[in-house]
Amino acid sequence: MDESWLYPATIVVLLILAYMQWQINAKKTMILILVVLGYIIYSHETGHSLTEFREQAVDDFDEAVGNSKYKERVVTPQMRPVEAQEMFDGNGSATE
Fold it and tell me: How far is the CA of 46 from the CAs of 38, 41, 42, in angstroms?
């Protein structure tokens, strides 16, 4: 199914909604709709999204505190005795 109409239709619908909000003097809602419209246009034209920005911020924060998403977590018996002992025993069950 060709969805080439979805992007222009979204823009038209949001513009109509913003105009309707302007007509009834709901300025804050109109501004919110225009901000959403601006974000949609920006993300479509540049290919960047808020999810990409969030993931980059989380990765930067992890690196700043010394964590890395590529490091494996080391479990020691002092952290969680039951689960850690199961990992060391290799049997995977709490009862034998």
Answer: 12, 9, 6
